[in-house]
Recover the amino acids of this structure.
């Protein structure tokens, strides 16, 4: 059972990593950044255009959250495997 | 497809797997105690039907629109606001006491961030099915394992319960509270000896009912008093005489309380009138306006709104696609009520079903008092379906046994 759960977690990690690294697009997020007019603002290390107003609203594409996605993939895969094993195993045991 | 899609899918998978694991452990624990038979199949079917309802509601806006655009929007906004606050904020405590239903959602958002509504719907479905498992266990205590299975099938597949199973509303958590309270009351009825577990279950159940619907907690507390009084009376003077005495006293005290309420608690009556004056947002099956300014009006409202809750919406009220779908729920509800009444008359009243019947009556009055729209009543009725499934499961099991014995007798002769 533990082996199957570990296998599920590993599969989840691989799938999540594959998806997150090969993802064609990133979620567009809009963030409000307080900045004085004329100043340049940096978002995720990239230099953005000059802030047009005191509170500029800048649309950014954040850097990939690979670590978060991979970790969640690991947990999700493990838990899904645990759920499947829990539900399927007693039935198989009953049959045998 | 974006990375956000992947994130939401992962969180949904985590929550869904946790729901399956919790449900499985709960069923295994109750099965080990001999309270349920194998109810995995009805619970699995219930899970599938609820997931299908969520998918249909998302895919067909004409059906799902009202689910997501009315109360849900308020609940979601509150959830997001609460999740943005630190856990040390006093708002968590106050919301936990008065809006308990948002706490699991807010904790999910706190842990994962904005992961969409699907994980929250899965939590609701899990809570809904936990309530089904708990009432099945209660039916199992009364009528045996087959009664538990019949109850599980009824509560899991009843269409309106499945339809509202994934709704982000008070229903699911309130139903868990009702199921816990009913289980505790049946325990108290069947076992004279004081046990800590039923007491704890009853208190948790009352707490959940208070946290989700504070007005209903009053009627749940009345049900507790009536059940405990009925249990004491039936031990001393027998079931029939005890129930007759209790009914007479309860009706007399209830009517006296209704006539006294405008003088004793004028603030509460004014608050109730305010609730009855405000139309339900987004609803289009309004009930006739009711006034509760004096005792006779209040009594009239209690009676008429209770009848409205049981009968409305009528099957011919089909102005929208959602209402057309709801006709199935209404017709099945009628069938469930009529079959329960017919079997009770035919087989006679089993004392162990008295707690469920008292809880149904009290919950009906509690829900009816604040009812302003038949559609709202349709949603509230899923609570009654859950409780009604217990006596119906037990009565059907007994009918089944009697039928099998009759057939066996015919074969033998």
């Amino acid at each position: 059972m533990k082996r199957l759960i570990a296998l599920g977690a590993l599969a989840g990690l691989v799938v999540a990593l594959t998806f997150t690294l090969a993802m064609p697009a990133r979620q567009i997020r809009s963030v409000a950044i307080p900045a004085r007019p004329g100043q340049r603002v940096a978002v995720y290390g990239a230099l953005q255009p000059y802030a047009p107003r005191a509170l500029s609203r800048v649309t950014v594409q954040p850097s990939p959250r690979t670590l978060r996605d991979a970790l969640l993939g690991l947990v999700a895969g493990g838990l899904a495997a645990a759920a499947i094993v829990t539900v399927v195993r007693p039935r198989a045991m009953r049959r045998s | 497809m974006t990375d956000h899609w992947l994130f939401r899918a992962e969180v949904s998978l985590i929550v869904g797997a946790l729901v399956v694991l919790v449900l499985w452990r709960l069923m295994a624990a109750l099965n080990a105690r001999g309270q349920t038979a194998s109810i995995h199949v009805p619970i699995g079917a219930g899970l599938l039907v609820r997931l299908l309802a969520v998918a249909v509601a998302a895919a067909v806006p004409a059906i799902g629109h009202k689910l997501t655009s009315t109360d849900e929007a308020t609940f979601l906004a509150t959830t997001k606001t609460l999740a943005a606050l630190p856990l040390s904020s006093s708002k968590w405590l106050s919301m936990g006491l008065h809006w308990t239903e948002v706490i699991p959602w807010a904790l999910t958002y706190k842990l994962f961030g904005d992961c969409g509504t699907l994980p929250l719907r899965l939590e609701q479905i899990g809570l809904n099915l936990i309530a089904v498992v708990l009432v099945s266990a209660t039916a199992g205590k009364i009528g045996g394992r087959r009664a538990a299975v019949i109850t599980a099938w009824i509560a899991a597949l009843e269409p309106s319960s499945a339809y509202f199973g994934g709704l982000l509303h008070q229903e699911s958590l309130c139903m868990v509270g009702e199921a816990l309270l009913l289980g505790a009351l049946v325990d108290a009825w069947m076992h004279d000896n004081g046990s800590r577990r039923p007491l704890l279950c009853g208190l948790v159940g009352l707490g959940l009912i208070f946290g989700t619907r504070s007005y209903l907690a009053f009627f749940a507390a009345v049900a507790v008093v009536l059940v405990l009084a009925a249990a004491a009376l039936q031990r001393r003077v027998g079931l029939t005489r005890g129930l007759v005495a209790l009914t007479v006293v309860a009706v007399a005290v209830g009517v006296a309380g209704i006539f006294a309420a405008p003088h004793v608690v004028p603030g509460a009556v004014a608050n109730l009138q305010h609730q009855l004056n405000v139309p339900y947002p987004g609803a289009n099956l309004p009930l006739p306006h009711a006034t509760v300014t004096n005792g006779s009006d209040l009594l009239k409202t209690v009676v008429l709104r209770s009848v409205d809750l049981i009968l409305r919406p009528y099957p011919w009220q089909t102005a929208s696609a959602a209402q057309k779908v709801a006709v199935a729920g209404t017709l099945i509800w009628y069938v469930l009520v009529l079959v329960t009444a017919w079997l009770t008359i035919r087989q006679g009243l089993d004392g162990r079903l008295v707690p469920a019947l008292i809880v149904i009556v009290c919950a009906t009055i509690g829900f009816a008092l604040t009812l302003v729209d038949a559609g709202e009543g349709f949603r509230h009725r899923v609570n009654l379906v859950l409780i009604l499934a217990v006596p119906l499961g037990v009565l059907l099991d007994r009918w089944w046994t009697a039928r099998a014995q009759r057939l066996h007798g015919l074969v033998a002769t």
